[in-house]
Amino acid sequence: MPNNPRLKAPVFQADDFTTFVKIDSRSTTKPEFQFVVDALRDADGKFKRRYEGSLTLASTDESGNPVEASGRSLVCSCYDGRHLSVTLRITNHGFSRSAPIPKPGKKEILDATVLDKLKEKEKARKRRFDCSEYVSPPWQSDEPTEAYPLAIGWLNDAIFDLFPPLQGERWSGAVLITGETGSGKTQVACGLIHKYLGALRLEGGRRPHFVTVEYPIEKWLTHFPETAQGWGIDYTPRIIGTDVATLRDGLSDALRQKPAIVYLGELRSDAELKDLIWFAGTGHLVVATAHAGSLVQSMDKILLSQEADTAARRQQTAQSLCAVVHLNSGSTVSGSKFVLPAIWKCTGAGLDTLVADGLASLLPNTPPDDCRHDCSSIGRYYFANRLLGKLKRKKPMLYNTVQAEIIRASLDWDLKGM
């Protein structure tokens, strides 16, 4: 394989960027893409799914002039083996008319012109991220119904608003969302990711890179990278067993992909929780879901996975956390369903008390709105009041029907512990 292989792919004028190349089973027939075949297969011909090293991308601009960029790359399989995600950190960005560019033929294997068809790709840089279908009905709605009086969109807003505005600073650490089966873990995770990516789009700059490592993928953002880039984001979904061998391998690759946020889906073992905390400790933002019966049990599972049985180990683990959210679901006598969270988020005071007192520090507080950013542990009664306040303004008759039962449930859950 050449020291600096070349690949026909879209090039952007940026210090680093992610682009995508379509691949199919006929890729071995094109000599200009032989490096992909060499890099992604071992000596036995088995698919290795990744290449890391120097790379030159060659393309043409909208005027038809040759464009190329060289740098350190991470090339990996994604979209169930149908595409390559190419993240390049530029060391040499050139626009040369003499640069040799592979000529696409009728049977082109790696369809690298897909992004060239997006004439608005850079005009969309300030466009607000919009993909409401990523959160499926009935959870996606901001409209309360008799079946779901506390709209899940309101719940996502309430959780998101507990954190200070981005203002140029991105979140980091692990966000673990827990609950029983059917409590809405995936829907809340997708909703929070949607809001975070939308906020990043308003910040401008590099397209946010959203990486997922799951088996199976519970909720696709889209099945086509060009669709996501039309929304102003890069989306690299990787399926364990098809695109990447293990969760740890996927996270190791993500370190080279400059992700704005990584989603892991459901974690089922202590080893996977350990991988979550390890990756979160690298300064990236990573979201995952898991089963747990309470917020205290959720935090206990994290600490046990890290063998954090001393104050020093608890501090090291807690510093890698952004937030832990536990969801409880209930229903009224009339059959209306509702979900209320309890949350611990990493603040200075919350970190100190968790290190000193352990799980006993997780108490259900109800902070006033002007203090919500500073409060670490927040109980379900806080969310019940906030969401019911919206319901009262939106549908007062429905509010009168469910208010007493939801408040009673939230207090009962808080009294039993977080």
Q: How far is the N terminus from the C terminus? A: 56 Å
Radius of gyration: 23 Å
- The H/E string reads EEHEEEHEHEHEHEHEHHEEHEHH
CATH topology of the largest domain: Rossmann fold
CATH architecture of the largest domain: 3-Layer(aba) Sandwich
Strand order of the largest sheet: 8-7-9-10-6-11-12-13
Count of structural domains: 2
Q: How many β-strand runs? A: 13
Your description of this structure?
With 418 residues, the chain is of the alpha/beta class. The chain has two domains: 6-122, no CATH class; 132-208 and 260-415, Rossmann fold (3-Layer(aba) Sandwich), CATH 3.40.50. The protein has helices at residues 34-40, 152-160, 185-203, 225-230, 247-254, 270-280, 295-305, 311-318, 348-357, 380-394, 396-415, and strands at residues 6-8, 16-22, 50-60, 66-78, 83-94, 173-179, 209-214, 234-239, 261-266, 285-291, 321-331, 337-345, 377-378. A hairpin with a 5-residue loop joins strand 3 (50-60) and strand 4. The longest helix is centred in the last third of the chain and has 20 residues, at 396-415.
Provide keyphrases for this structure.
Rossmann fold; eight-stranded mixed β-sheet; 13 strands; 2 domains; 418 residues
SSE layout and pairings?
Elements: E1 6-8, E2 16-22, H1 34-40, E3 50-60, E4 66-78, E5 83-94, H2 152-160, E6 173-179, H3 185-203, E7 209-214, H4 225-230, E8 234-239, H5 247-254, E9 261-266, H6 270-280, E10 285-291, H7 295-305, H8 311-318, E11 321-331, E12 337-345, H9 348-357, E13 377-378, H10 380-394, H11 396-415
Parallel strand pairs: 1-3, 6-10, 6-11, 7-8, 7-9, 9-10
Antiparallel strand pairs: 2-5, 3-4, 4-5, 11-12, 12-13
Helix pairs in contact: 2-3, 6-7, 8-9, 10-11
